[in-house]
TrEMBL record:
Superkingdom as given in the UniProt entry: Bacteria
InterPro entries found in the cross-reference section: Cap2_linker (IPR058964), ThiF/MoeB/HesA (IPR045886), ThiF_NAD_FAD-bd (IPR000594), Ubiquitin-activating_enz (IPR035985)
Organism: Stieleria varia
GO MF assignments: molybdopterin-synthase adenylyltransferase activity; tRNA threonylcarbamoyladenosine dehydratase; ubiquitin-like modifier activating enzyme activity
A GO biological-process term: cyclic threonylcarbamoyladenosine biosynthetic process
Gene3D superfamilies: NAD(P)-binding Rossmann-like Domain (3.40.50.720)
UniProt EC number: 2.7.7.80
This protein's name: Molybdopterin-synthase adenylyltransferase
EC class name: transferase
Amino acid sequence: MSATRPVPTDGLRYGRRLVESLGQAELLRDLEWDERLGWRITVAITIDSGNEELVPAKTNWSIYLDEQHPYGTIDFYPAVEGGLAGTFAHQNYNGLVIGDRLSGNICIKAPQFVFRRDAYDADPIGHKNRLAWYIEKAVEWLTAASQGKLLDEGDYFELPVFYSPKMTDHTIATNENADSFALWQSATQNYGSAELVAVGPNSAPTFAVRRFFDAKSNAIMECDWGVEICHSKRTIQPAIWTLADFLPVLEPYQVPTTWKEMRRVFLAHGDNIDTRLRDCFRLIRDGYQRFLLVGIPVSKRIGEAPSMIHWQPLALPPVSFGINFAKGFRPNDEGYWRRDRRELVGNGETINWQTGKSWGKDDLTIRGRLENKLSDKRIAIIGAGAVGSVLSELMCRAGAHKLTIVDYDDLEQGNLCRHLLDISDLGQNKAVAMATRLNKGHPHSACTAIDARFPKQTQQQNLKLQEADLVIDCTGDDQVTRDLASFAWTDEKQIVSLSLGYAAKRLYFYANPSGKFDPKDFASKVTPFLEQDASEHDGQLLHQGIGCWHSAFPARIDDVWMLTSAGIKLLEAWCTGLSEGNFAVLEQVIDEGGFSGIIRRGAA
């Protein structure tokens, strides 16, 4: 935002004039400059209200426009005088007075606005009539609000904004799904304790719920996390939980901000929050600040039955303990609760809501995940070099969390130009370091390592390798392909070879679903291309440095990433049955204009 008052652009002037021509809008105050939010106009919007007590027919709005309007943001805030009272769905908390406006910016954008691409968005970004489009959307929003239709049946469920004036920015992550929902449905108690473990940097405090206990400290749920969270020895602290059977909101859609409001919500549902708090507080009388997790049953879409639990955290001050009890009472349960009720959760005390996040597997991979027929497999990756490291990273982040990585080699400085490991891993076994990296990269990653040369692993390592459903060879080593065929597998395995040709001009994909790798068939198909690789380079070999006789394999990191990424497409198609061919070559195409793409070729 500009430090000095800019001159209104032609687009701003046109937008301001446009308001005066709209039948349901009236310009109350002309363009004004706000140092923080930009240009503002004040507009009265009139609708045919379905409930004037809830939404008046005429409401006043502070509309903020980017200084480069019709580009940039447009925000609608209720005015203090004549504005919309209360907090509705698809609106920020509206209870704060900020100058002559309220805090409840309404959401009238299309869902695609988060993509930040004009072509994807219904918002007419850049069009001179853009403000008129927004005002029309505001009219639709207000009309729906007056009719109680902002949350329409079939829409995706949206939690209200859990605003707190004491927001201290802690995040509590939980791992809930349909299976755990069934467990909670059958629970005999509605409160207990939980174990939290710290994750992430100390500057942004985040905790994951590792397990839930009943009121007698019996474990009732072990949360299904990956290695990093399950085995973490970082800060561990107790919390308390209580499970409601309703969404705690005040009409129309505001979360309680004080304990008085919380009591009103629970009483409206025939429940007593004080009974719950008193029971819970008995479990944390230790003199420390703790979190309370409020369990809320939610559905995926409006109108559907609840299908999972959302845990909404709030921070509590230290509850009464030791010599801190109510005057006139003894230091017992009654004395402690009397003080808690008056001083800590009294009617005038604000609720310190925190941020609750769902870190379920589906939630964390919704932006892009592999097909289940691939991601659900137990996968062994033999070779943690350039191809193996990239393959394991991409597959793990896309949902394949049960990887076993096999490699005997240690990371050297020459590997850094195209390996995912870094300087801090030099001298470490590649498989071990990669498994550690992957487990730190995703809350559900449960990757293991075998620091041995296949097939010379120990008996214990062999048992681990035998657990795999799918084995992927990324070594580019012909001896490994022969070992894959002769190895004593205990059951049928899907076995795949992914390897790069010289200078990473080609990637070779070979799959054998029969449970026994066929090295002769593999060789017959790949050899003609390897011979072509050999004929295409000038015979000059790369050497690591002075004093090193052995040559280095040339392959640039972008070529490794590109071909390996494309190789995953082949692997996924084969695992899901979309492609029946067991051999393919991905080949870079270079023409006079340089790189022009990748083509797929079959056996010669």
